[in-house]
Amino acid sequence: MKKILALTLSLCLILGLAACGGSTDTTTAAPETTKAQDQTTAAPETTKAPETTKAPETTAAPAAKIKVGMVTDVGGVNDQSFNQTSWEGLQALAAEDSSFEVKYLESKTDADYQTNINTFIDDGYDLIICVGYMLADATKEAAEANPNQKFAIIDDSTCADLPNVACLMFAQEQASYLVGLVAGSVTKSKTVGYVQGMVSDTMNLFGIGYITGVLEVCPDAQVLQYNANNFGDIPGGNTAAKDMITKGADVIYHAAGGTGMGVINACDEAGIWAIGVDTDQSPLAPEHVITSAMKRVDVASQDISKAVKDGKFTAGVHLYDLSNGGVDLAPTRTHIPAEVLQLVEEKKAAIIAGQFKVPTTVDECPAFTLK
Amino acid sequence: MKKKRSVLEIISSVRFIHILLAIILGFMVGAIFLAVMGVSVGDAYGKLLDSVTTVKGLSYVIVYATPYILTGLSVAFSFKTGVFNIGAEGQFVVGSMAAAVTGILLKDLPKPALIPLCFIAAMLAGALWGIIVGTLKTKWGINEVLAMIMFNWIAFYLSNYIAGLPGIKNTGTAEATQTISENARTLLSKDVINQLGLAPTANWGILVAIAAMFLVWFIIEKTTLGYELKTVGSNRFAAEYGGIGVNRSILTALAISGALAGLGGALQLMGMGSRISIFSAQESFGFGGIVVALIGCSNPFGALAAGLFYGALTYGGSKLNLVGAPTQLISVIVGTVVFFIAISVIFERLGGGLRARRNAAARADKEKREAAKEPPVKAVQAPKGDGAAGPVNKNEGKEGEAK
Questions:
Q1: In what order do the strands lie in the sheet with A222-227?
Q2: Which residue range forms the structural domain that includes residue A273?
Q3: Which residues in A lie closer than 8 A to residue B164 (C-beta atoms)?
Q4: Is residue A219 part of a domain?
Q5: Cβ(B200)–Cβ(B213) under 8 Å?
Q6: Which residues of B37-50 are buried (b: 16+ CB within 10 A; e: fewer)?
Q7: Cα Rg for chain B, rounded, in angstroms?
Q8: What is the mean pLDDT of chain B?
Q9: Inter-chain contact A105–B318, Cβ cutoff 8 Å?
Q10: Residue B166, pLDDT score
């Protein structure tokens, strides 16, 4: 009897594991391109092999390689967001310049950050790129303990005072402002939606920029706002979006990572516009993703890797904004009406020229109500 | 008589052999996946082995294993007492959060006071989480498995809520609690870590885990309480008939089980984590505990061994990315191991059937051989030979009838 109990329980567990596996499958299933990318990463390794066979030069060869290690946050490397983008950037870099050797380590829990960073330190990597502000504390600790190790961290500026950490920051409010202009221009119901992954100063920039943009072109628009408080809750995003659609929203922007997949699905089903974030999310729903607020994390990762190679690594804040192409509308622009695109380009030029500054604080944007 | 015992011995040792087999099969299935993905099996398993066989690697394994040993003990204890504690995940989370809140709010207390306080807070929180579910079960008959799965999520969101409260929330940009006080950390001293070249998070939590292991063994094997709990576990009606308070036993079992998982949460936080992030997904320390309990045969000592094994897989697995293999391989291996442990029960039965058949065949064979041997003997000792040959002849006769 006990054995049967144990058997059924284990089966339950296996089913449970299968169920858990299923949910990650849905996120990994989409980027089949990553398989191809894995193969491309395999390629440099095979080219590495001949080098090691050249026995006399083996000591010289590894020294010439610039080893770049990337530590993901708990989202994993296939998050269809900044982890994935920066890894794709690094892979592209390694593919075009064989003097780079790039690797990544995935973090499963918050406690893995330090372990993964230390793995790269122990293996003598030239640069360690920590993806996401969640790694700020771990990066700071490791950077202080290893002053000769170069680090880069994405989306965090709290490590800016350390002499060996480059903080790669993005002007997310600028890109969000531009997609806000698009949303405000194409809405017919004068009701737009916004789903945010979490309330924090960094995350609020997305909402503030977006709402400013919407209200600029459509001052009497209503912006429905929702804080999912989660970056991985696809059903939650879906429910929130459906709720907004019921209330009349016909454009919804998300800055919520995986939760946003649910938002885009809901918009796709209801036939309204969705706006993606971080990467060009048009492939997720080609008919209904009107645009995406792009953050060129890939470019930033490549830049800092090249800087290490050229000996030009500098610590402190590296700001990526409209002026250096660090943020922008996604390249897929077929759904955006020409006059809207023209408006966006004008505003972009104004921001770059310094004639207009997108607000960055909640006080400057009273319509932003998430807390 | 002697023969019977040796069969029993085989069966009792088979359990361990089955688990070893399941582990080997798990790695074999993992190898198939690696081969399909085009990753060198040698590279991947070599990396796995390399990374856990250095001094530093071993210290990491112990650090990673500590929470799993505790959740494994928690689940193993519940198995012994007839409830299935699938809620170790939630108990772990509330335990860890209770320790974090204690470690943040009382940060000025000295180490000898703060550390035990954190442990107690975590164990109380975990026990409370177990007792709530136990009460639902004993008062209203609500299935504890369902209630626990839901309580895992309640713990998850409760933890996220607490982590966002002012005074607890990180003062920087991170979506996490503040780092707990240095006085609440169980880390070894920096000198020891540097001298021995250990992991930066090397801590003495493992000693607490080992102490907990002996305590669990003692409770189960050497106390009246343990006897009662076990009796309820094997047959609650018989236990009730025997005068044991079944409901009280279930509550006690869940409280102890919950306290163990909660302590695991505290050890993880005070050893390696130092803060709790706002979760976007369950961190699965509790679910890992179920695996550990299964691999460890629900035995406290088994849980220690299985916990170390699981810790090694978790830590070694985190490095698989470096050789181009996905870390999810570990889930494949663990899933397969659990699967084969689960069906080892069937194997045992099949084995038992086979053995019975083989024994029968051997007996028949022996009889035949004896029968064949008999004739020459028979010539000398006629009476005895008749008796030995008799059954064989009878069988032949029966077969003839059946035809």
A1: A222-227, A191-196, A251-255, A273-278, A289-295, A327-329
A2: 172-294+337-364
A3: 229
A4: yes
A5: no
A6: bebebebbbebbee
A7: 28
A8: 85
A9: yes
A10: 87
Both A255 and A188 in one domain: the answer is: yes
Contact with chain B for residue A371, Cβ under 8 A: no
In chain A, the number of structural domains is 2
Are A195 and A180 in the same domain? yes
Q: Which of A4, A8, A11, A13 to mutate: most B Cβ within 10 Å?
A: A13
Token pair for residue A209?
Answer: 């920029």
Contact yes or no for A170/A360 (Cβ under 8 A): no
Tell whether ipTM is more than 0.90.
Answer: no
Q: Could you identify the residue written with the tokens 């409280």?
A: B255
Tokens of A78: 């296939």
Do A166 and A179 reside in the same domain of the chain? no
Q: Which residues pair with B277 in a beta bridge?
A: B176
Place of tokens 């869940």: B254
DSSP A227-255: E-S-SS-HHHHHHHHHHHHHTT--EEEEE
* A147 and A224 both lie in a single domain: no
Residue B197: closest C-alpha in chain A: A122
pLDDT digits (tens, 9 = 90+) for B208-246: 999 999 999 999 999 999 999 999 988 888 988 888 888
Tokens representing B390? 């008799």
Same-domain status, A356 and A304: no
Cβ-in-10-Å burial (0-12, 13-18, 19+) of B76 comes to: buried
The tokens of B22 are what?
Answer: 């399941």
3-state secondary structure of A328: strand
Least confident of A216-230, A301-315, B144-158, B355-369: B355-369
Q: Does A101 contact B at CB distance below 8 Å?
A: no
